[in-house]
Amino acid sequence: LQVALRIRPMSAAELAAPPRPIAHRVDEQVVVLRDPMQDPNDVLHASRSREKSYIFDVAFDSTATQETVYRATTQGLIPVVVSGYNSTVFAYGPTGEGCGLGEWASPMAMGGPSPERVPSSASGCGKTYTMLGTDGEPGICARTLGELFQATPPTSGDVEYEVSMSYLEIYNEMIRDLLNPSLGCLQLREDAGGTVQVAGITEVSAINADEVMQLLARGNRQRTQDPPAANRTSSRSHAVLQVTVRRRHRGRGLRHGRLFMVDLAPPQRAAQTPPRGQRMKEGAHINRSLLALGNCIKALSHRASTKYINYRDSKLTRLLKDSLGGNSHTVMIAHISPPPTAFEESRSTLAYAHRAKPPRTTV
Hints:
The protein has 363 residues and is an alpha+beta fold. The protein has a single domain (2-98, 124-225, 239-356), classed as Kinesin (3-Layer(aba) Sandwich), CATH 3.40.850. It has helices at 12-16, 66-73, 77-82, 106-109, 127-132, 140-151, 209-220, 278-301, 315-319, 321-324, 343-355, and strands at residues 2-7, 23-25, 30-34, 51-55, 58-60, 87-92, 155-156, 159-171, 174-177, 185-186, 188-190, 196-198, 204-206, 238-249, 253-263, 329-336. The strands form three sheets. Strands 1, 5, 6, 7, 8, 9, 10, 13, 14, 15 and 16 form an eleven-stranded mixed beta sheet that branches. Strands 2-3-4 form a three-stranded antiparallel beta sheet, with helices on one face. Strand 7 (155-156) and strand 8 form a beta hairpin. Helix 6 packs antiparallel against helix 7. It starts with a strand and ends in an 8-residue tail after the last helix. InterPro entries: Kinesin-like_fam, Kinesin_motor_dom, Kinesin_motor_dom_sf, P-loop_NTPase. It is found in: Cytoplasm, Cytoskeleton. Residues 1-359 form the Kinesin motor domain. Its main location: cytoplasm. Keywords: ATP-binding, Cytoplasm, Cytoskeleton, Nucleotide-binding.
């Protein structure tokens, strides 16, 4: 399990505001969050630090490029999947006020590289930008698929490769095929070998990364979106892209590996987006699903003291059962925003990601 954290750049409006950023990277692994609400002149709490540090496998500040993030987190999963193992990549982060990620240009203001432009529709903490990116700065999905197809030519000596993909969303604990929404609500089934699959899901054979990205764009237009008050483009569902690589070796049978790329729905805070009717039900399902995922990852990280892993608390964890435990590889990329107004969301995100970190033994 690898846990990474990425801090998005501040928008022009945020840079113009007096308070300085509350989140910054200290080194390649440490991120510090400062509480802007604490009064430095408060004598009673003078000895209490206003800053708290969090340690991850890798941390990225606003100057990190898409290529840097990809190479440090996801590139190593390609040979794993081609070899017949399962892998999962999560993008996690809160919703928030439109942060002007079209202004992902603050690295220039900080003396860093030239700006990376993202769609004006992007908002929140930048997880969709990390996953999908833009035409000029592709995200993790496009870069991973591009190298995956290079590593799996249709025929190579005695080895034949076949790559297929499916795309679904989990909304209110119901599974919907984003490539063929007319199929309605689909069910999870477990075969004789214990593999959990979605019954009736559309599986499309693909020959190159561009074709998969076109299908991905088509599926994203079908995602359930009902913008909360905080973010006009926020999605209300988990989107799961599953890429399956089948490797036939003459005389040695068949191996298949699966790569899941998951864009998680943002956690819902009633204080930020007051729930009303159906929105309250949606928020409860999203938070329960994220809690179940966090519990599974924490249990897997502490496997020495945990004998039972409860995958059945949500459809998401049950679907990813074979790609979280065993010999699988998992990467979580958490995202936070640096302005003082995002302190509560950033703190809860850091706590969630830090909770997933496996314990480090020291001599």
